[in-house]
Write a structure and sequence with these properties.
This protein has 196 residues and is mainly beta. The chain contains four helices and 15 strands. The chain has one domain. It starts with a strand and ends with a helix.
């Protein structure tokens, strides 16, 4: 699905009802839509099994030049499931976006191979702090086990990849590029060895 220059869209691109109707969606490319504030809002979905998983076939998401985007995923649904086949997430020119993932969502993205975030002036952390997350559980989960490419460019307010200590694997990571991110103090050790 390609959505380009549609300024009259609702502020939520995919509500729970449209998520249920898009189970076979594999590619989403959204560009130059001034009204979109939330890409995916699963609020109201009832998680009864595989048939209710959010967008299980989605493999690639590209969001570009969406000035009002504040959430890629609005995590207000307990026990969210889905997005398990997402392999590539590219976000460019979304100045109102502060975080990319919550911890609850990030741990589901076990097949994610590419994360590219560029020209997002408001971005402060890739994984948001989640106050109710269980520290003991967090320490046991390996985040993004298949990540191969990491790219951050022109993110003037990015301070951290994540505000808590998560485990990351470096075995598959081939490149990590960080360019013009003046507030970023450090990356997880697993990523630093591949840094350009």
């Amino acid at each position: 699905m390609e959505v380009h220059r549609c300024d009259g869209l609702s502020d939520i691109l995919f509500s729970s009802n449209s998520i249920k109707g898009m189970q076979n969606l594999e590619l989403l490319d959204v560009q130059w839509c001034r009204s979109i504030g939330v890409a995916f809002d699963p609020k109201g979905l009832v998680w009864k099994g595989i048939s209710d998983m959010a967008l299980p076939s989605l493999k690639k998401v590209k969001l570009s030049c969406l000035p009002k985007l504040t959430h890629v995923w609005k995590d207000n649904s307990p026990g969210i499931q889905g997005f398990q086949n997402l392999r590539s997430l590219i976000v460019n020119g979304c100045g109102s976006l502060i975080n990319l993932f919550s911890y609850s969502l990030a741990k589901l993205l076990v097949k994610l191979q590419v994360i590219e975030v560029t020209e997002c002036g408001g971005m402060e952390a890739i994984i948001a702090n989640e106050p109710n997350a269980d520290d003991e559980v967090i320490m046991k989960i390996i985040m993004f086990p298949q990540l191969k490419k990491l790219k951050f460019r022109n993110l003037p307010n990015l301070e951290s990849f994540c505000s808590r200590t998560y485990k990351f694997e470096e075995s598959l990571l081939k490149t990590a590029e960080v360019n013009n991110c003046p507030k970023l103090k450090t990356l997880p050790p697993a990523f630093q060895c591949k840094l350009e």
